[in-house]
Amino acid sequence: MGATVVNVYDAKTNLSRLLDRVSRGEEIVIARAGHPVARLVPFGERSQPRSPGAWRGRVRISPDFDALPEEVAAAFRGERS
After folding, report:
1. Contact (Cβ atoms closer than 8 angstroms) between residue 4 and residue 24
2. Measured between alpha carbons, how far is residue 20 from residues 4, 9, 26, 28 in Å?
């Protein structure tokens, strides 16, 4: 089944109706000026609970991760280098 596209005004005006349709399995795309910006889909629980530590050993954080270069800090303060 393809998604139904509605504009922002219609989505705001008919949100309850759209949520009813989504709860029955339909997908709704909300568009602004004809360009899709959001998708309403049925909420689904995860099929499996998350398992903490799943990325253990697969990610490496550099020793200098917390070090902020002075030129970056100056940019945050609005200073030019």
Report:
1. no
2. 13, 18, 9, 11
Between 3.40.1620.10, 3.30.160.100, 1.20.120.450, 3.40.50.410, what CATH number should domain 4-40 receive? 3.40.1620.10
Strand partners, 28: 4, 40
Q: Looking at the whole model, is its pTM more than 0.70?
A: no
pLDDT tens-digit map of 44-74:
866 788 889 988 999 999 998 899 999 999 9
In this structure, what token pair is assigned to residue 45? Answer: 């629980």
Amino acid at 65: F
User: Which H or E element spans position 72?
Assistant: helix 70-76
Q: Provide the total of helices (H) and of strands (E) in the chain, helices listed first.
A: 3, 3
